[in-house]
Each structure stands twice: as C-alpha cells, then as structure tokens.
Amino acid sequence: xxxxxxxxxxxxxxxxxxxxxxxxxxxxxxxxxxxxxxxxxxxxxxxxxxxxxxxxxxxxxxxxxxxxxxxxxxxxxxxxxxxxxxxxxxxxxxxxxxxxxxxxxxxxxxxxxxxxxxxxxxxxxxxxxxxxxx
Length: 134
Fold this sequence. Notes:
Blueprint: H1 2-7, H2 13-49, H3 60-84, H4 92-100, H5 106-113, H6 118-130
Helix pairs in contact: 2-3
Organism: Cirrhinus mrigala (Mrigala)
GO cellular component, one term: apical plasma membrane
InterPro entries: CYB561/CYBRD1-like (IPR043205), Cyt_b561/ferric_Rdtase_TM (IPR006593)
C-alpha cells in the first residue's frame, strides 16, 4: 500500500492524506510485532537452552537476557511514544510545500523546507542590533 500510494507521483494528495493514519498505525503494529517476537525468541532460547544451572536459578546468562529484554522493551516503548506524539511530527506547511515543490535542486529544497517564524526573524534582528551589525 505504501509503495502504491506514496511513491507513485500520480496519486492525488487527498488520497495520501486519507491513508496516512492507516499507514502510520500499520507500521507501528508491525514494529510492535517485531519487538514482541524478539522478546519471545530470546526468552525461549534461554529457557530451553539452559540445562545446568536451570533458568529458574537465575544464572548470569538469565540476568543478561532479562536486562536485554528490558532494554528492547524500553526502546520499543520510546519509539511508539515518539511516533504517536503530535509534537514530534513534521509541520503541515512543510508537507504541503514539499508535495507542491517538484524541483530537485538542493537550493530549492532548502528554500522549500526552511520555515522561520516571525518571532525567529525578530529575535535575530534584535541580536544583530545589539551586536551593531544591523
């Protein structure tokens, strides 16, 4: 679906916008499935691989794999948290500019994606005035 909708330039923007939530959350579902598979795989290998001492006796290998499992789970949770937060998403104006901008030169890309707010421009002007460069 992603290749057909997002890589073919003839796809209308409204179709891309309508399918974006499905695209995002199906990707997050696949990522979550990969994390769960990794956790189950290392746990299964450890449980059935340790015979002497047994897993229930918590040898150093068991502690290492449990810490690794916690780190994998924390990484997965952090990625899911970042991907679902609106503050981490690209601004809508930048998306509209990059979709409507069909040029491929680096200068045009820099100009199309550069976004300065009025407060940023005013603060840089004030800084130049203080330094005597305005």
